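Hi, here's the filled form for the chain we discussed.

Project: internal
Contact: R.S.
Residues: 224
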Amino acid sequence: MKPRICIIEDDIALRTELANILELSDMTADVSVSDFSQAAAQVIASQPDCVILDLKLPQTDGHKICRDIRAHTSVPIIMLTSSENEFDEVLSMNIGADDYVTKPYRPAVLLARIHAALRRSAQTHSDTILCYKDVELNVSQATVSYHGKSAQLTRNEQRILQLLMRQPETVIPRSEIMCALWESDAFIDDNTLTVNINRLRKTLSSLGVADDFLVTRRGLGYSI
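And the returned structure, exactly as it came back:
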C-alpha cells in the first residue's frame, strides 16, 4: 500500500506542487485539510503515514498543530517553512516534530527526509506493536486490542503477553516467564504466575478473544 502523506499548507500552488511530487514518487498525497483550526483533529482521525506541516498558517500556527497532533499520535511530522529562525527549528523539534525543512526546498532532499521518517516510524511500530490472530498488543502503552475494543494491561499481564506474542505457536516454559517477570524464579511462589495468567485470560476474554487463544501446556508452560 502506498504511504499516505497529509499536506497542511495554505499556499495552493505549493500544495499542488508537493502533491505532484509525492504522487510521482509513488505516494498518496492527502490535501483534504482546508480548515486549519481543525487540522490536528483531522490528522488524528484520518491517521496518515506522515504529515508535512507548514509553520505559518492562517487561523493558527504549525507549532500548535504539531503539539496537538503529538499529544495523540506518533505520526511522523515534517515542518516545512520559509523561516530560517533557529528558535523556530528548536521549538519545532522540542514539541515533537521529526524533521524541519526550509523553503525553497529541493524535492530530492524533501523526499529523502520523508522516506527516512517513514522508515523510522515503521521500525518503531514493529518494535512496539505486536499482532497475532487479530489481537494487537501495544507494548509502549501496555494496551491490548481486539476487533475495535481495547483494555489496559497490568505490568505483568503486558510482559506475559509480549513474551508469548513474540514467539507465537511456541511453548514458553513457566520458568522462562517467571524469570522475565521477576528476573528469577527461585523465590517466587509458582501460584503467583498462575494468578497473573488467569488475570490476563480474563482481560482477553472481556474483549471477546476466544478462550483457546492462550493455551496451558501442562507440565511445560504456555503458548498462543
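Let me know if anything looks off before we file it.
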